[in-house]
Amino acid sequence: MNKQVAISAENNEAGNSEIRDFEIRDYLRLDMFPHFMCPGCGHGIALRALLWAIHSQGIEKDKLAIVSGIGCSGRVGSYIDANTYHTTHGRPLAFATGLKMARPDLHVVVITGDGDCLAIGGNHLIHAARRNLDITCLMLNNEIYGMTGGQVSPTTPHDRFTTTTPAGNKEPVFDASRLAEAAGAGFVGREITIHLPRLRDLIAEGLAYNGFSFIEVMSDCTEVNGRKNDLGSSPEMVLGQTRTMRPSEYDNNVVDHPFRPNTMNTGVFVRSDRPEYGATYRNMVDEIQALQQKGQK
Amino acid sequence: MMKNLEMRFSGAGGQGLQLCAKIFSRALTGEGYHVSMSQSYEPTSRGGLSRADIVASDGTPDYPLTTDLNTVLILDQAAADASEGIIRDDALVIVDPRRTKNPPKGKFKVIELPLSETAISLGSERVTNVVATGVIAELSDDIELEIVERALRQSSPKKFLDMNMDALQAGVDLARGVKSA
Amino acid sequence: MTLQSSGQETINLQGNHACALGAVAAGCRFYAGYPITPSSEVAERLAKELPKVGGVFLQMEDEIASIAATLGASMGGVKAMTATSGPGFSLKQENLGYGMGAEIPCVVVNVMRGGPSTGMPTRPAQGDLMQARWGTHGDHPVIALTPGSVEEIYQQTARAFALSEKLRIPVIVLFDESLGHLVETVALPDVTDYEKTVRKWATGKPEDYKPYKADKDGVPPMARPGDGYRVHTTGLTVDESGWPTQKSAEVEPVMKRLLGKVALNNDLVESFEDMDCEDAEVVVVALGVVGRAARKAVRELRASGVKAGLFRPITLWPFPTKSFRKLTKKAKHFVVAEMNAGQLILEIGAAKTGRQSVTGLNRFDGVPISPSQIKQSVKEVLGHE
C-alpha cells in the first residue's frame, strides 16, 4: 500500500467531527494503485485536499463527476471513486459544461493543469468563467509540462530552465487567478499545498459556491521542474513557496514581469453573487414552456 | 397531370429575391404542387449574384434543382449571365433594364419593364421584388393571380402589407400593359 | 399522385431545419455548436425548438468545445448532437475520435461546402467523404449517413441517433450546402422507433459491471452517472474494466471488438437506393444531391434505351460493399459522379470484383453535377458519342 494512502485523517488538524471522520480510502479506487505520481509531487496533496473537501461537503460519490484533461493533472481524477471522465487535452471544461447542463443534479469538478487549462484549453477557461455555470475547476499549477518531460508552460516563471527553454524562459507568464477573475469567474482562490487544511477549506468553499469556482493550487514538480532548476527536494520547494506566496491582496503584488507577480498572494480573491448560468437557462426554459402551454389552451 | 415549372428569381444580394421565391412557393404548394426551392448567394448579405429557384412538380422530383427554366426574373446585371444555357425557348424572361444593361440573348422572349422605377414611384426601391411578383403572377399561365396575392398577404409583416399590396397591383398593371400592347 | 392527395400533412421545409426537427423527433435534448456557414440554420432552429421540449441549447466558444460539450452531455445520459461544416469538422476530429474510442453515442452533422480551408462557404461540395471515414487519428469504427433529400435529412438524422445509441458510436451525417439550403415540400416520416431506441443501460450489481465488456452484439451496456456504477471513461486504450492498458494481449481483443462492432450489426447499419441495377450495363454511383441528378439521368437514359442503373449509398461508411457487388454483377462500367476531385471512386475501385471500367465524373467548382452531365458521361463510357 502506498504511503500517501496510509496517512489517516487523525494526524491532521481538523475543525469539526465531520472532517475528523474523513477516511481517504473511502474515496479512492484502491484497485488502481499504485498511482503514477512522482515522489514529492504536490498533486497527491491536492487530491487529498479535494477529497477531504468533498467529504466535508457531504457530496455523494454517485453524484460526483470528475472531469479531467491530459497531463499529470489529467491522471489524478482516475483514482477517485466517482464518475470520472479523462477527456482530451484542454477540453475538460467544455466537456464538463455539456455534462453539467445535461445533468444539473451532478456535482461537476474539473481537475486540470496549467498547460491543459491555460494553453491548449485557455479559450474554454475564459468562457467557462464568463458563463458562470456551477462547476468547480481545480487547476493544479506546477508551472511545467510534466507528463511530456518538462516543457515550458504559460505559468513557467521567468528565466526558468525547461527542455524547450534551454536558455531560460523569456516569455511573459499568466497569472491564472487574475485571468479567471477578469473573465468573470464567480469564485476565485489560490493556495499552496503545504497548507493542507487551508487548501481543503478553499476547495470546500469553491464546491459550495453556486457558480463557476476557479481554484488555483500551486503544486510542485520536483522530478522535472525542481531537478532542472536546482530547486531542491520536495520539502525545500514547498517551503520555498511559503516565502513567495502569502495570503494578501492583489494590490500588494510586486510585478516586474507582465501578468505574473514575483511574489504571489494566496487566499480567496473573488466571491461574487453573479447569477449561475444553469439556473438562468432553466428559468428561461420554464418560461418558454409556460408560454407554450398558454398558447395551446 | 400538372406541368413541371422551373422559375428563377435573380439579381443582386439584398433585392429580396428569396421573398419572391417564398411567395411563389407558398402559392404553388397551395395549388398541390411539390415545391423544391433552392438558392445561391454570396457570403456577404448585400451585393453579388443572388438567386432563388423553384422547381414545382407533381410529387417529389428526381432532381430538385433547376435545369430547364420557364420563368426567369433578372433584376441586376450581376444575374444577366447566370442562367446561360438553361432557359427554355418558350420561357418568360422579365428584366429590369435600369440595372440590367445587357440582358441575356436567346430564342426566348425578353420582356423589359421598369420594375425598380415603379417601386421608387411607390416610395421604396425595396419593393421592386413585389412589383416583379405582380408582373409574373399576371403574365404566367400556370398560376392564378389571386393565389399569389393571398400568399403575399400571408408572408407580409403588418406594417408592410399596404405597401406590398400596392406594389403587387402596380406589377399587375405593368403586365397588363404588355399584354394589351 | 401528389403528396396532398395521399392525405398526409405536408410542409415546405429547409434541409437544415429538417435536420434540426429530425433530431428533436428522435429524442435529441442537447445541442452544442458554433456558427458556421452553411450549417448555422441547424443551430438556429434548435435554439428555438430545444427549450420547448425542455432540452439544452448551447452556443459554445468554438468548434472543439461544441463536440466536447456534446460528448459530456451524452455521458450524462442525454441524446446529444452538434453540427458544423468542413472547417469545423476538421477541428472536431480529435474529439470525434475520443467519442469513437470511448464509445460515446452522439450525432455530428457536417453540411459540406467547397474547400480546402475556408474554400467556398456558400457553395456545395462533397469534399469531406474521406475525412468522415479517416479524419480522426488511429484505427476507429465509423458510421456516416448521406441523405439525398429534405425528407431523407429528417429521417436519416433521426436514424443517426438510433444507430449511435444502439452501437455506442458517434454517427456522422453528411450532406452538402445545396441540400442544407434546399426547401422541399415534405410529409415528415414517422420516426417513433428511432425515438424509442436508447442505449443499453448497465443493470445488475455495480461490482460485477465491466464498462467495456460487450454483449453478443459487440456493444457494452453503458453506466449512467448517478446510478451507482461510478465508472472511469478515458481516451486511453482500456481493458474490459475500463482501466488503461498498453499490454498487447489485452489491447488486441478490445480493439478487435471495437473495430468489428459496426460490421457485426451490418443489417441495421446498411442502407442504399438502387434503381435498375440488376441488368444495367452502366451503373452510376452517386450520393446526396448528385444521387438525385443521377436518378433523373438514369430514368431518361432508360427511356432512350440505354441500360443504365443507379447505386446511391445512404450509409456511406461503412460502404455497403457486399450489396453493391451483388447488385452490380452484370455491370460493365461504373460512372462515379461526385462533387469532389475523386473520393468515392476510390471505394468503388476497391469494392468492384470484376474487370469493370471505373470512370469519375467530378466537379469541384461549387456547382452541383447536373443530370445532363451524367447522361453525357454514361454515353461516353458506352462509346455512343
Explain briefly what this protein structure is.
The complex is a heterotrimer of chains A (297), B (181) and C (385). Chain A is of the alpha/beta class. Chain A has helices spanning 3-6, 17-20, 43-56, 72-76, 92-102, 114-119, 122-131, 176-183, 196-208, 222-228, 234-244, 277-296, and strands spanning 64-68, 83-86, 107-113, 135-141, 187-192, 213-218, 245-247, 254-257, 260-271.
Write a concise keyword list for the protein shown above.
heterotrimer, A: 297 residues, alpha/beta, Rossmann fold, 9-stranded mixed β-sheet, 9 strands, globular, disordered N terminus, B: 181 residues, Pyruvate-ferredoxin Oxidoreductase, domain 3, 6-stranded mixed β-sheet
Description of the molecule:
The complex is a heterotrimer of chains A (297), B (181) and C (385). Chain A has 297 residues and is of the alpha/beta class. Chain A has helices at residues 3-6, 17-20, 43-56, 72-76, 92-102, 114-119, 122-131, 176-183, 196-208, 222-228, 234-244, 277-296, and strands spanning 64-68, 83-86, 107-113, 135-141, 187-192, 213-218, 245-247, 254-257, 260-271. In chain A, strand 1 (64-68), helix 4 (72-76) and strand 2 form a beta-alpha-beta unit. The longest helix of chain A is centred in the last third of the chain and has 20 residues, at 277-296. By secondary structure, chain B is of the alpha/beta class. Chain B has one domain (5-180): Pyruvate-ferredoxin oxidoreductase, PFOR, domain III (Pyruvate-ferredoxin Oxidoreductase, domain 3). Chain B contains five helices and six strands; from the N terminus they run βαβββββαααα. In chain B, a hairpin with an 8-residue loop joins strand 2 (34-40) and strand 3 (49-57). Chain C is globular and about 70 Å long. Chain C folds into three domains: 4-196, 3-Layer(aba) Sandwich (Rossmann fold), CATH 3.40.50.970; 206-267, no CATH class; 274-381, Rossmann fold, CATH 3.40.50. Chain C contains 14 helices and 16 strands. The two termini of chain C are 36 Å apart. In chain C, the strands form three sheets. In chain C, strands 2, 3, 4, 5, 6, 7, 8 and 14 form an eight-stranded mixed β-sheet that branches. A five-stranded mixed β-sheet of chain C has the order 11-13-12-15-16, sandwiched between helices. A two-stranded antiparallel ribbon of chain C has the order 1-9. Classes of the chains: A alpha/beta (297), B alpha/beta (181), C alpha/beta (385). At the A-C interface, strand 2, helix 5, helix 7 and helix 12 of A face helix 3, helix 4 and strand 10 of C.
